[in-house]
Amino acid sequence: MGKNIYFDNAATTFTHPEVVEAMMPYFTQNYGNPSSIYEIGQYNKNAIDKAREQVANLLNAESAEIFFTSGATESDNWAIKGIAESYKNKGNHIITTTIEHHAVLHTCQYLEKNGYEVTYLPVDEDGLIKIEDLKNAIKDTTILITIMFANNEIGTIQPIKEIGEIAREKGIIFHTDAVQAIGQVPVDVKDMNIDMLSLTGHKLNGPKGIGALYVKKGVRLRAFIHGGAQERRRRGGTENVPNIVGLGKAMEMAGQNMEEKNNKMLLLRNKLMQGIKEKVPYCKLNGHPEKRLPNNVNYSFQFIEGESLLIMLDMKGICASSGSACTSGSLDPSHVLLGIGLPHEIAHGSLRISLGINSTEEDVDYLLEVLPEIVQRLRDMSPLYEDFLKNN
Ligand SMILES: *Cc1c(COP(=O)(O)O)cnc(C)c1O
């Protein structure tokens, strides 16, 4: 096998060997049901309590404010539908943005079909909302503001603390999908006035199928899954103990030497951004140049198709992602790239590179070596490029 360089860490990450090691005993000897009163049951109840504390610590939350879920999709669904129902006597208006993850957008669209009103705030060309737009959108009937911490495609980080302050002033609940931010930038729910927050294990070197929802004390949130008394009667069903333990361990590890790890990541990211800008003509950075995740690079290349670019990169052993959804059977470019105002043809030629904890300078150098050649080869086959050359 040739090279295998994984630059798609915003899609998912490998499970860290230390996380796997922490999980293993809970598949075999520690299989007791945490609800049972004998020792192996209680032992597992303690393991869950410890993981809850590990998750809470990284967010500066209390353990009692953390609920385990199957991932961020469930957390987003629970937060939004739960608040919509629990606060429907107060109002039916929700504020979000046009560039949210589908777990938020499709949930909001579902609620619109059921009598709720949703405002989708636009973003500027860097992917930022305008605070003025948010203030203007608030009504007496607004019950929830749900705005993502950092965007999964273009890496832009929203002014979360300011949004939190406005929500707090107006007495509106503020939920954020912080999946991409956790472990990448400091997240402090108290300092940032966050009432609810979604996260998932597999984006931070934890296992898949486990996530959490942080719910600030005092927020009324109806149960999501009715059944047993697990998760303080809010989410029934026997706990996924190995995954919960794995999420706890991954959160703990994400918090260790975060600044040092992220400075290293920033060096790689900046080298990549600088290198692409210098070596590939007719390209454009997507997302905010500074207010962006330390692991995210997203460029559009004129005259080419992102899908072809991905295939050629794959042949060179590089895994990355594009901003068009052709693979999922649709020809529309991503709503995020359209949301920042890219024309269709530019959005189609986009590439997302997301670094991980194992990314090296060698990997970056290799990408910078092969990318310019590939882009040029694709352009040489492009009628659009031919026209462009003729006319310029
Ligand atoms: C990956 C992701 C999700 C979904 O997480 P799952 O664990 O796959 O449900 C939600 N929001 C954002 C921003 C993501 O990147």
Key structural traits:
single chain; 392 residues; alpha/beta; Aspartate Aminotransferase, domain 1; Aspartate Aminotransferase, domain 2; 2 domains; 7-stranded mixed beta sheet; 4-stranded antiparallel beta sheet; 14 helices; globular; binds pyridoxal-5'-phosphate
Explained architecture:
The protein has 392 residues and is of the alpha/beta class. The chain folds into 2 domains: 5-13 and 257-391, Aspartate Aminotransferase, domain 1; 17-255, 3-Layer(aba) Sandwich (Aspartate Aminotransferase, domain 2), CATH 3.40.640. The chain has helices at residues 17-23, 39-59, 72-86, 102-112, 131-137, 160-170, 230-233, 241-255, 258-279, 306-315, 335-339, 344-347, 361-380, 383-391, and strands at residues 5-6, 66-69, 93-97, 117-121, 142-146, 173-177, 196-200, 211-215, 283-285, 296-301, 318-319, 321-322, 350-354. It has a 7-stranded mixed sheet with strand order 2-8-7-6-5-3-4, sandwiched between helices. The protein has a 4-stranded antiparallel sheet with strand order 9-10-13-12, with helices on one face. A two-stranded parallel sheet has the order 1-11. Strand 3, helix 4 and strand 4 form a beta-alpha-beta unit. The radius of gyration is 22 Å and the shape is globular. The site of pyridoxal-5'-phosphate has 14 residues, from helix 3.
